[in-house]
Specification:
Helix content is 21%, strand content 29%. It is of the alpha+beta class.
Length: 103
């Protein structure tokens, strides 16, 4: 499947809860989520030719946790590796205590 500016799809809260619950069941000791700020998202997206963002599933051996790596992607589906983002804020400890995705 080719990447396009419209890749991805909206899902329901129920579908999201199922995905998150299944992940937590399979990987109970992993972080639940990661946060990256709008400035860094915009920096990725404003690169010439960028049509979206790809997230790689990384692992930080020092922190012993998942550590997502974000790159811009061009219309050919190629990673734009001049700007790579990491060091997102993990949940826990920084979580939305009221979110149904964080139960």
């Amino acid at each position: 499947m080719a990447v396009t500016p419209n890749s991805g799809a909206q899902i329901s809260l129920t579908e999201a809860e199922t995905l998150v619950d299944d992940f937590k069941a399979k990987f109970p000791s992993e972080i639940k989520a990661s946060f990256i700020g709008i400035e860094n998202v915009q920096n990725l997206l404003k690169q010439d030719g960028c049509i979206g963002i790809r997230m790689y599933y990384g692992y930080d051996n020092d922190a012993e946790r998942l550590s997502p790596v974000f790159v811009g992607v061009n219309s050919d589906g190629e990673d734009m590796i001049d700007l790579i983002m990491d060091r997102s804020v993990p949940c826990p400890p920084d979580c939305d205590a009221n979110s149904p995705l964080n139960r």
